[in-house]
Amino acid sequence: MAEKSTTTGTVDVLLHEERAFKPDPNFTAKSVVRDDSLYREAAKDRELFWARCAQELDWFEAPKSTLVWDPPNYRWFEGGKINVSYNCLDRHIQSATRNKAAIIWEGEPGEKRTLTYWDLYREVNRFANVLKGLGVKKGDRVAVYLPMVPEAIVSLLACARIGAIHTVIFGGFSADSLRDRIKDAEAKVVITADGGYRRGGIVQLKSTVDKALKECPGVQDVVVVRRTRRDVDMSDKRDHWYHELISHADAFCEPEPMDAEDTLFILYTSGTTGKPKGIMHSTGGYLLGAMMTTKWVFDLKPEDVYWCTADVGWITGHTYVTYGPLANAATQVIFEGTPDWPERDRWWKIIERYGVTVLYSTPTAIRSFMKWGRQIPQNCDLSSLRLLGTVGEPINPEAWIWYHTNIGGGRCPVVDTWWQTETGSIVISPLPGVTTLKPGSATRPLPGIEAAVLSDTGEEVKHGGGYLALTAPSPSMLRGIWGDQERYRDTYWSKWDLKTYFSGDGARRDEDGDFWFLGRVDDVMNISGHRIGSMEVESALVDHDKVAEAAVVGVHDEIRGQAIVGFVTLKHDQEPSEEMEQILRKHVADVIGPIARPSRIIFTGDLPKTRSGKIMRRLLRDIAEGRVLGDVTTLADASVVEELKQKYDEEG
Ligand code: WTA
User: Fold this and answer.
1) What's the chain's Rg over C-alpha atoms?
2) Ligand 1 centre and the CA of 269: distance in Å?
3) Which residues line ligand 1 (CB under 6 A)?
4) Is the pLDDT confidence value at 465 over 90?
């Protein structure tokens, strides 16, 4: 066992493989899942297993079938009638849970609000009536562009209550990104705020919406949550204040009985082309996946105070902030701000203040805390914590150990959860009372999930590396790409055969059969756990009038996992300069959003291309990461690479 490790790399992973953490019997004794019976039950009859799990949901009408699989399509729980908001609220208010805290919210400037299940139920009912009053009907799309305020959760549940399809757009996305998503989804209503707080400043959400809507004639109404109380332009007919509408709304709204397969939401995520994909999720299957995995993986019990730090703009904020915890009647913390504002101890103070027991966060956050030093968390009382989780990117063993030792005090299991926007809920993860943990490994598929590592040609790799594939559909997996079922088939179900889902991730299995994730194998980058397509950033760069051509790659970054590097060829009359680099970086942030801002731009006279004219991103990645160059035999002009490499090395 090596004393010290570097942050990534297979060698490091191999060194740590011997280090394993067996479950503590005291933890297991009190866990939701205490033995491997769920795995065994699921292995015996997977469909029956899910059908049994589905009995934990409240159905208006029971499903008539469990799975109908017509590759690449599948339908779960057909004939079943259900409402997601009913399952997250109505059934809890019939018991003592009525006055249990559902959401303990803290704003960035420090305000605190607690909503019990009863409070949340009333607010959701009222807002559902507001949406109805605006003419929103079952199947209509509603775009949500909000900061992390309770109204975000209320909006999602209100849509679910009346059967409207929500599409949340992360508040850090630009007006152009917002416009593209609103247009693609053909949203009728937009829910936003007069602003959101970020590191003491204000994110101007409303003016961004105004800009985006100049090109979205289909949007009839905008509902504006009052958050910052700053002046914003309100257009007479189109814009309404949330608090005004809700004050006149009726207190009860009948939950719409939805078919299990009706679409609950669309969430856009990056792919390998310039156009984001609208991932569609179902009602019954999605909710089941969200509810069961939250309970199993986070070992949720009524007395827990659970905190998932994700923003509602990402899938984690849908499944593990909104639907999973609420379906389980959990008490959760929601925080609007960032870990380092106003000080770097903000998260630890929150844990101390509310007695958080389960924390679900990201490798990027953990690596930032490591950099800031363990004294900061050590000054706070973190003894309430009993379980830690991570998601979004591979966690390097060094960060895992740091998290386990310094945040978990050596006593909290760490669950490394692998999943995607497309899978809807966690796919590969330890169960904390059962699984032997290995720092850096997400261990094995959850009960009811069929996953494998496959070679390029589709043979199963029992020990060794390949691609992560899902070999049977699970209830919460995507049902399609909004408006583009061909792309759905091509992207996910065509690498091997129509029954095998291609994840886009490289993975390896060790001698025990445990899974280790190695990052994306396609042209999708992962920056701080956020997916950004190389092509999206490339189109943003060539959109600038001084740019002739651009290629974008993700390179290793100590904190954020990856950083974006753009290789740019300027138009012939343009001179590269530092100023130009800054202009282009800002341009990308303006076009897509600050999360897509490249860390570096390298100017080059030419880009390495194959003889057929395809840009060789792989070679650029090699150059940017200082590796020995790969095969250049297919290159149209090999000297381009040598020049580029020299230039990159010189610029450091
Ligand atoms: C990556 C986030 C390694 C992976 C829930 C996947 C991970 C992409 C892990 C999905 C993990 C997520 N270990 N890699 N535990 N979790 N990923 O759609 O590359 O935003 O394909 O969903 O994040 O990102 P998405």
Assistant:
1) 24
2) 12
3) 269, 314-316, 391-394, 416-421, 442, 503-505, 517, 520, 526, 531
4) yes
Structure tokens at 344: 């770097």
CA of 419 to the centre of ligand 1 (A): 5
The confidence band for 633, taking pLDDT boundaries of 50, 70 and 90, is low
Confidence class of residue 442 from pLDDT cuts 50, 70 and 90? very high
- Provide the H-helix boundaries in 464-522: 485-492
**CA distances from residue 404 to 94, 304, 358 in whole angstroms, order as listed:** 39, 19, 13
Query: How far is ligand 1, taken at its centre, from the CA of residue 394, in Å?
Result: 8
Which of 5-14, 567-576, 623-632 is the most confident on average?
567-576
Q: Per-domain residue ranges for the chain?
A: 16-506, 528-650
Position in ligand 1 atom list of the atom nearest CA 316: 5
Question: Which is the closest atom of ligand 1 to the Cα of 504?
Answer: 21
What's the pLDDT at 629? 64
Handedness of CA 254, 255, 258, 262 (dihedral sign): positive
Output the CA 528–ligand 1 centroid distance in Å.
10
Do 16 and 440 touch, CB atoms closer than 8 A?
yes
Confidence of residue 634 (pLDDT cuts 50, 70, 90): low
Ligand 1 atom closest to 529 (CA): 23
- How far is ligand 1, taken at its centre, from the CA of residue 115, in Å? 31
pTM: 0.94
Topology given in CATH for the domain delimited by 528-650:
GMP Synthetase; Chain A, domain 3 (3.30.300)
Q: What is the largest CA-CA distance in the chain?
A: 73
**Residue corresponding to tokens 């390998």:** 272
- To the question of domain 16-506 being in CATH 3.90.230.10, the answer is no
